[in-house]
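Hi, here's the filled form for the chain we discussed.

Project: internal
Contact: R.S.
Residues: 139
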Amino acid sequence: MAEFLVNDRNAVTELGRGGSSMGKMSSIKPLSSQVFEIIECFLYTVQYGQLILAIQDGIVVKIEKIEKFIISAKSREAKCSKVDKPLKKHPLQTKILTELQSIRYGQLVIRLDNGQVEQIEKTEKRRVNELEGLYGDGI
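And the returned structure, exactly as it came back:
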């Protein structure tokens, strides 16, 4: 399984089997190729909808895809077509991957309207280690 990492120059690089040995970027976990492909496919195939990525410990643990179909005079005449894998990367793909890799706990929501990225919503949660519950559990 390939892994991808966004570097300082906003370039997406594929990591080899040895993982990352980039020094200061070692705290950032690379994305699996499966997550990378789902995001790429979503950006090129969905007209209306949203993609919700839930992150725990810097790893994408759940992806929710909500696709909406709006019926209008224009869409009634168009037929469903299968889109092949794009030859070039999406203009916002690097920005999305950078934001995704910066989240340790939380979620990233990508909203599409008429095939264009309308909004990228980032919700980050932080764990507080100093607080303890009744039996030594975290709150």
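Let me know if anything looks off before we file it.
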